């Protein structure tokens, strides 16, 4: 899907710099290639709006995963605070050894993905508590969805004829 969008954008000389290779831009070209080249219409408009909203909001998933991994690394390597004893603390004699982490089940992975996608879809509205930044985010998303709707609308073409050529 992205390969087709990339070829489409190169064919049209749309990419001018390496910065234009941002994933959102490629998603936009793919949405355009899917919806506009089929002459537009209401189903293509709905598809374009849904794909645009998903591509915008799904971009938070890598950010969440990065911060989650970063927090887990810092929690594992908790530094010794000044004033604390640097000597290792002895475990009590009756303490159980830490259990090895269980491998993730397929159901757990699917549940986590559904949860992440749900959070991503709701994230623009959850950011409303940030004040002006949240409103600005929703406004930008609205403009993007409006543009996707307008780009994929069917144009009314009036075809008249055939005409007789006069002698």
Account of the protein in words:
- The chain is built from 6 helices and no strands.
- With 167 residues, the chain is an all-alpha fold.
- The chain has helices spanning 2-11, 23-35, 42-57, 60-76, 106-126, 132-151.
- Residues 8-21 have low confidence and may be disordered.
- 58% of the residues lie in helices and 0% in strands.
- It has a domain at 1-71 and 121-154.
- The termini are far apart.
**In percent terms, what proportion of residues is strand?**
under 5%
Q: List SSEs in N-to-C order.
A: HHHHHH
**Stretches where pLDDT falls below 50 for ≥5 residues?**
8-21
Could you say which overall geometry the principal axes of the C-alpha atoms support?
Answer: elongated
Residue share in helix: 55-70%
Q: What is the C-alpha radius of gyration, as a whole number of Å?
A: 26 Å
SS-derived structural category: mainly alpha
Query: Number of DSSP strands?
Result: 0
The largest sheet is: none
What value does the average pLDDT take? 75
Distance between the termini: 54 Å
The number of helical runs is 6
Q: What's this entry about, in short?
A:
With 167 residues, the chain is an all-alpha fold. It contains six helices and no strands. The chain has helices spanning 2-11, 23-35, 42-57, 60-76, 106-126, 132-151.
Tags for this entry?
single chain; mainly alpha; 6 helices
Furnish the topology, listing elements before pairings.
Layout: H1 2-11, H2 23-35, H3 42-57, H4 60-76, H5 106-126, H6 132-151
Helix pairs in contact: 1-2, 2-3, 3-6
């Amino acid at each position: 899907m992205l390969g087709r969008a990339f070829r489409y954008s190169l064919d049209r000389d749309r990419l001018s710099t390496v910065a234009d290779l941002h994933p959102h831009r490629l998603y936009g070209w793919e949405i355009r290639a899917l919806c506009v080249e089929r002459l537009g219409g209401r189903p293509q408009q709905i598809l374009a709006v849904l794909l645009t909203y998903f591509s915008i909001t799904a971009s938070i998933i890598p950010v969440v995963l990065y911060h989650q991994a970063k927090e887990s690394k810092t929690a594992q390597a908790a530094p010794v605070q000044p004033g604390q004893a640097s000597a290792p603390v002895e475990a009590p004699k009756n303490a159980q050894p830490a259990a090895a982490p269980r491998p993730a089940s397929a159901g757990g992975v699917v549940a986590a993905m559904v949860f992440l996608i749900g959070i991503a879809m709701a994230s623009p509205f959850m950011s409303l508590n940030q004040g002006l930044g949240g409103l600005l985010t929703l406004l930008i998303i609205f403009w993007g969805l409006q543009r996707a709707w307008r780009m994929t609308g069917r144009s009314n073409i009036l075809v008249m004829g055939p005409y007789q050529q006069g002698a």
